[in-house]
């Protein structure tokens, strides 16, 4: 984003550059704006938008509906890294009782995701709500919303841990963009390597210590 700008103004500009016909656009709560939903529909795409209390009346109407009904239900269990997560998804397609729906172009579904995380003896539960222009079932929305968070959990986490991106202090906009591109190229090269089972961070160090390993990475035909 440019200086003195924010996601609300940057997202429509980005959408104007992309061909999203037939695509599903998922955005965090900051981007849940009427104009953005309208832009996606006009571009022949669909949306899944996170809904929080900054849209107070709409949020209250949506959350209240799940006290009375659900049109579709799905539950999924994930295990790994010493923890378990149960994600329960409920979907409502009948929106007649939601007055605010008239302000959101193309809206066809409201979604509730309940995440229960279990780490040892500790259990935490969180409810999240979404709106969508898709009339899909709960299993679809459960997976689609999980995939959205995969961007943060996989790409951004790997860049932070493997390349310490969060600690980078480059402020010049062009230099920052160039370094971000270089880090992503390096990450893809390291991920394509099948000669070692070491972590991304370890492979990066190995490439700096061992020129033979570095040349193996660069010459990899899978990249």
Automatic annotation (TrEMBL):
Pfam families assigned to the protein according to its UniProt record, in alphabetical order: DDE_Tnp_1 (PF01609)
All copies of domain Transposase IS4-like, residue ranges: 4-189
InterPro entries, A to Z: ISAs1_transpos, Transposase_11, Transposase_11-like
Domain of life according to the entry: Bacteria
Stated name of the protein: ISAs1 family transposase
């Amino acid at each position: 984003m440019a200086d003195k700008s924010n996601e609300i103004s940057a997202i429509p500009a980005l959408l104007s550059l992309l061909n999203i016909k037939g695509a599903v656009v998922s955005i965090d709560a900051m981007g849940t704006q009427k104009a953005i939903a309208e832009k996606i529909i006009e571009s022949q795409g669909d949306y899944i938008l996170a809904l929080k209390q900054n849209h107070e009346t709409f949020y209250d109407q949506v959350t209240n509906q799940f006290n009375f009904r659900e049109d579709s239900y799905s539950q999924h269990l994930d295990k790994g890294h010493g923890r378990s997560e149960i994600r329960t998804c409920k979907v409502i397609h009948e929106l007649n009782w939601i007055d605010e729906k008239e302000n959101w172009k193309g809206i066809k579904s409201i979604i509730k995701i309940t995440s229960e995380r279990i780490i040892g003896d500790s259990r935490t539960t969180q409810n999240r709500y979404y709106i969508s222009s898709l009339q899909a079932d709960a299993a679809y929305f459960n997976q689609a919303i999980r995939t959205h968070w995969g961007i943060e959990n996989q790409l951004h986490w790997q860049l932070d841990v493997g390349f310490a991106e969060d600690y980078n202090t480059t402020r010049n906009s062009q230099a920052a963009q160039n370094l971000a591109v270089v880090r992503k190229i390096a990450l893809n090269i390291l991920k394509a390597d099948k000669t070692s089972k070491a972590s991304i961070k370890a492979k990066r160090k190995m490439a700096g210590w061992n020129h033979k390993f570095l040349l193996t990475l660069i010459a990899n035909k899978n990249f």
